[in-house]
Structure formats: structure tokens, C-alpha cells
From TrEMBL:
Descriptive protein name: histone deacetylase
Function of the protein: Responsible for the deacetylation of lysine residues on the N-terminal part of the core histones (H2A, H2B, H3 and H4). Histone deacetylation gives a tag for epigenetic repression and plays an important role in transcriptional regulation, cell cycle progression and developmental events. Histone deacetylases act via the formation of large multiprotein complexes.
Organism listed in the record: Aquilegia coerulea
Major location (coarse): nucleus
Pfam families for the chain: Hist_deacetyl
Length: 348
């Protein structure tokens, strides 16, 4: 297991040409225009809690999705558990809007979005080869539309977090996707887009990404490698094969140290927490041996870190390749409520 904490100072273009400077300025002006014209930021009434989900998140098309180890119905089952546990009512859940092309262009290029009109390209990103044989209209509807809804959820979560202190998108966390490239079941860079929206719409100037998925967050690291406004704390398994088998006690001890260092080096105005559950013992792709109680403790530590510093926190659920992940995530949310780190009660 590796602990990577990196922040890079933002660099300016070194060409010295006025055309390069002008081009950069034009790009940023267009980005601001797109963010300010979005429909993804909307007012959420107090009759709803800052927990975001849509039934559209769940991916199902002809059983092909089962060829990838990811549980593509995980998101819906998390909410079902919370409702069954009596801590959430369906009417309290916030339904996000789908991210539009203009929203996606805040980070992605026209060329990359155009490439997703190739079913072969999407099949490579999703790591499900039979997707290449499907008409792209089907791929758009059954796979990319759910991803775009989750992107909308992550973006909205930042607004809700600033208003209420925290927000959970029961989805998102596509940390292998960057502006120009997707991969690892990640077609859109929701974390990067969310942060750029926060910079422009929420007047936030410093963001900390805490990425605790078992895999490296190479996508957002690529996007923000030269941006000093973003600090990335990434705890991941650098040797997925052979399995390293880091245990719960070791994992939590290293996390405590990493959070202490991060807190001393950077003073964020927003935390984006990528809470992958592929660190669980038995996960086929994570290679770690963290117990369900360990995951619950991990989430509690991150939420407490943000609350103690009075920093709004956005949580996304990211990877997790066992059917048990949904139950663990739901149990963790229940624990956060029990420890008064989040509030799922609606004002009377």
C-alpha cells in the first residue's frame, strides 16, 4: 500500500507568445461561461437531505454489465438498505440532472466526447468487450447516460456541501478518467468537473481530494498536476498483483498519519472524498485486507477530519467489486449519522 500526498504549484505557459496567452484566456473565459450557464446547480429544499441518487445510476443492459466485476446495481442497493434501516425516506433523496455536453466540456475536449460515439471506444473504457458490438445509441442510453447522471450528482454535491456542511453522491468517483482519456470503468472525470464548478460558482479557491479507493486516482492527478489550488491525498495499493494484503490496523494507522500531514500542509475550503470500498478483504481487484468495520472507521476518520476543521465535504462512492460493498457503505452512512457527523433528519 502506498500513501501519496502531492500538491503542485500552478505554472504559466512558457512559450512567451501572446497567441498562447490569448488562447489560454479564451479557454478559461469559455469554461466560466459554461459553468455559469449550467442547470446542474439548483436549489434543494430543506425537505430533502444532502444525499444524491437517481435510479438512472444503475446500469443494466442485456446482462452484459455482469462481464465486468463491478456491481453496477450497487448504488440503488445502498439506498434500499438505508430506507430499510429506517434512517432514510425515498422522498428525502435528491435527484440530480444529467450533465450536458456543455457541462462536460468544462474539463473534457470536443475530441474526447466525440470519441465516445464509438462503441468500441466505450467498450475499452468499460472493460467489457461485447459493448463494442452494440449500436452506439444503445451504449449511450444504457451506459453513458447513467454515468452522466452521476456526474451531475457529484457536481451538485459540492453546492449542497457548502450549504449544509456535507453531501454524499451515492455514485460517482470516476477517478481513472481525465480530460482527454477514460479507462477503468470511468468515462467522465466527475471529480475534476465538480472542482472546476466549485472554483467558479462557489468562490472556493482551495480543494483537497482524499482518494481512498484501492487504486491510484490517476485521472484527477493528471488534471490537477500543475494546479496549486488542489492538494491530493491518495492512499492506494501500488502492487495490485501480487496481492499485498494490507490489514485493517496497518491501513488505519497509515491513514491517520497521512491525514495529519495533509492537514498541516494544506488548508482547503472543500474536501472531495473518493470513498472506494475495493479495499475490503476479498475484493477481487483491490488486493487489500481491510474489514467492513475498518471501512466504517476509515469513513468516520475522514468526515471527522473535515468537521473538526469546519470544511464542507463531498463523498463519492467510487470502486468496490463485491456484492457486500453496498451493505458496508450503507452501514458506514448509518454510523456517520450515529456519530453526529452527518444529519439525515428533516426539520419539522
Amino acid at each position: 500500500m502506498a500513501t501519496s500526498a502531492a500538491t503542485c504549484s500552478r505554472t504559466s505557459l512558457v512559450s512567451g507568445s501572446s497567441s498562447s496567452s490569448s488562447s489560454s484566456s479564451e479557454v478559461e473565459t469559455l469554461r466560466i461561461k459554461r459553468v455559469l450557464s449550467t442547470k446542474l446547480y439548483f436549489d434543494v429544499p430543506l425537505s430533502k437531505v444532502p444525499l444524491i441518487y437517481s435510479s438512472s445510476y444503475d446500469i443494466a443492459f442485456f446482462g452484459i454489465e455482469k462481464l465486468h466485476p463491478f456491481d453496477s446495481s450497487k448504488w440503488g442497493r445502498i439506498c434500499q438498505f438505508l430506507i430499510k434501516d429506517g434512517v432514510l425516506e425515498r422522498k428525502w433523496i435528491v435527484e440530480p440532472l444529467e450533465a450536458s455536453k456543455d457541462d462536460l466540456l468544462v474539463v473534457h475536449s470536443e475530441a474526447y466526447l466525440k470519441s465516445l460515439k464509438s462503441s468500441l471506444k466505450v467498450s475499452i473504457i468499460m472493460e467489457v468487450p461485447p459493448v463494442a458490438l452494440l449500436p452506439n445509441c444503445v451504449v449511450q442510453q444504457k451506459a453513458l447516460y447513467p454515468f452522466r447522471k452521476q456526474v451531475g450528482g457529484t457536481i451538485l454535491a459540492a453546492k449542497l456541501a457548502k450549504e449544509r456542511g456535507w453531501a454524499i453522491n451515492v455514485g460517482g468517483g470516476f477517478h481513472h478518467c481525465c480530460a482527454e482519456k477514460g479507462g477503468g470503468f470511468c468515462a467522465y472525470a466527475d471529480i475534476s468537473i465538480c472542482i472546476h464548478f466549485a472554483f467558479i460558482q462557489l468562490n472556493i479557491s482551495r480543494v483537497m481530494i482524499i482518494d481512498l479507493d484501492a487504486h491510484q486516482g490517476n485521472g484527477h492527478e493528471m488534471d490537477f498536476s500543475k494546479d496549486g489550488r488542489v492538494y491530493i491525498l491518495d492512499v492506494y495499493n501500488p502492487e495490485i498483483y501480487p496481492h499485498t494484503g494490507t490489514t485493517t490496523d496497518v491501513y488505519l494507522e497509515r491513514l491517520d498519519k497521512a491525514l495529519k500531514v495533509a492537514g498541516s500542509m494544506f488548508d482547503p475550503e472543500l474536501v472531495v472524498y473518493n470513498a472506494g470500498t475495493d479495499i475490503l478483504d476479498g475484493d477481487p481487484l483491490g488486493g487489500l485486507k481491510v474489514s467492513p468495520d475498518g471501512v466504517i472507521s476509515r469513513d468516520e476518520k475522514v468526515f471527522r477530519f473535515a468537521k473538526d476543521k469546519k470544511i464542507p465535504l463531498v463523498m463519492v462512492t467510487s470502486g468496490g467489486y463485491m456484492m457486500s460493498s453496498a451493505r458496508v457503505i450503507a452501514d458506514s452512512i448509518v454510523n456517520l449519522r450515529k456519530k453526529h457527523l452527518i444529519n439525515l433528519e428533516i426539520p419539522k
